[in-house]
Structures are given as C-alpha cells and as structure tokens.
C-alpha cells in the first residue's frame, strides 16, 4: 500500500539534515565549489576551484585546472590553509570532489568539520553560488578563454580586484580584504571623520543635521540561520 511504499522510500533516501553554520569572524568557516570556464572551442572547459571565507567574503583559495580532480582540490586546500590558517568548518555541495575520500581524509587529519549541502538545494551553498554569479555576469567576463593560461590570468586578476577593490553590500560596503584582515573598523572611523570635516566646511551641502549612516559590518555570517524562537503569549499557552 501507499504507506509501506513511503516508508521504504524514506528508508532508502532519508532526509538530509539542514546545514546550519555560523561564522563570527574570519577564518572560521570556508565554503568552496568548482565552476566551469568556457574554453577556446565548444565543449572545452576549464575548472575553477574557489574557496571563500563566508564572514569576510574573501577569496582565500582559487585555482584553475584542465579538469576536476579530488587530488587537485586537496592541494588547493593545503595551500589555502597554509596561507590563511585552517578553518573550523569547510562547507561544500555534494559534487564528486567535495565528497571524495581524498578531501575527507585531509579534513579529518586536520580536524576540520566537514559540512555538505542537501542534494539539489543550491541555497545551502549561497556564498559560492553568489560569487560565481558575480564572476560570470561581470562585464569583463569573456565569452571564451583562448587557453588555460588565459583563464588562469583572468581569474587571478579578477580575484585580486574582488578581494581588494570590490565594496560588498553584505559586509557594510567594505572590501573583503578589509574585513578579512581586520581593517574595516578603522576605515569606517576614517570615513566618518571625513564626513564630519566635510559637513563642518560646507554645512549647506547637507540636507539634514543627522550624521550620514556608515554601514556596519555584520556580527555574524550564516548558512541557513535558524528561525528565531517565537514567544508564546501566556494567555494562549494557558
């Protein structure tokens, strides 16, 4: 009957837990993924491996290779961790390299918690998905790359510009580098001081007496933030 079939289905494909991750500073949670870069001819692609710090949005690791490989992914992680430190958690979707024994063994050896998205739920890896959209919708992104070297040069330049020049709305219009290296608060104070001086010199240029708002850096970055518990009206609970 229908109930028996449903129980069998659930036994074979149990529901995956929703990943709930939080970072309150840089270096705590990294997320990574691989995206295809179009090569010189139709059907030819290169693979860009990209690792992001979810708190600062800083691209901590990026490599471009001719194909996808768990070994190459692990090499990128080792290099990234040697430069930026070993995170507490590494999150990814359920791609072949992401769920490979090679990557799992590396993270286990380093005592890094391994987290995965639920199958076919892109929102479980929002930082990687959003960054790939930023990359591929950028006006400078080419229709095709002439060679592997071209793809690597482009990606290195793009990541450098993103990390150090791109002002991200999700981190108070700071650059990822400023947040990652702890410079955001100081630069926010500098901007506030500059605005104060401008107001003092030319008050007529300001339409209000209120100080211009300086966007704050969020206290935390989440993947699937849990809903706040609802307060129960004592009258309804009685």
UniProtKB/TrEMBL annotation:
GO terms for molecular function: nucleic acid binding. It comes from Cryobacterium algoritolerans. This is Transposase. GO terms for biological process: DNA integration. PROSITE patterns: INTEGRASE. PANTHER family: TRANSPOSASE INSF FOR INSERTION SEQUENCE IS3B-RELATED (PTHR46889), TRANSPOSASE INSO FOR INSERTION SEQUENCE ELEMENT IS911B-RELATED (PTHR46889:SF4). SUPFAM superfamilies: Ribonuclease H-like. Coiled coil: none annotated. InterPro entries: Integrase_cat-core (IPR001584), RNaseH-like_sf (IPR012337), RNaseH_sf (IPR036397), Transposase_IS3/IS150/IS904 (IPR050900). It comes from the Bacteria.
């Amino acid at each position: 009957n229908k109930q028996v079939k449903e129980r069998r289905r659930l036994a074979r494909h149990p529901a995956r837990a929703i990943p709930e991750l939080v970072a309150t500073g840089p270096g705590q949670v990294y997320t990574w993924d691989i995206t295809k870069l179009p090569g010189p001819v139709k059907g030819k692609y290169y693979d860009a491996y990209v690792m992001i710090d979810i708190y600062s949005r800083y691209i901590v690791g990026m490599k471009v290779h001719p194909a996808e490989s768990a070994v190459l992914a692990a090499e990128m992680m080792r290099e990234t961790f040697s430069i930026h430190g070993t995170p507490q958690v590494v999150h990814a979707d359920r791609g072949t390299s992401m769920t490979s024994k090679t990557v799992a063994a590396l993270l286990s050896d380093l005592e890094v918690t391994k987290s995965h998205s639920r199958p076919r739920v892109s929102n479980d890896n929002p930082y990687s998905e959003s960054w790939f959209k930023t990359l591929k919708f950028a006006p400078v992104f080419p229709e095709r790359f002439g060679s592997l070297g071209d793809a690597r040069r482009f990606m290195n330049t793009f990541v450098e510009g993103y990390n150090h020049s791109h002002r991200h709305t999700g981190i108070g219009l700071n650059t990822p580098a400023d947040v990652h290296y702890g410079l955001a608060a100081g630069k926010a104070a500098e901007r506030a001081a500059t605005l104060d001086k401008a107001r003092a010199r030319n008050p007529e240029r300001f339409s209000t007496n209120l100080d211009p708002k300086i966007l704050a850096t969020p206290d935390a970055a989440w993947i699937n933030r849990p809903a706040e518990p609802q307060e129960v009206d004592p009258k309804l609970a009685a």
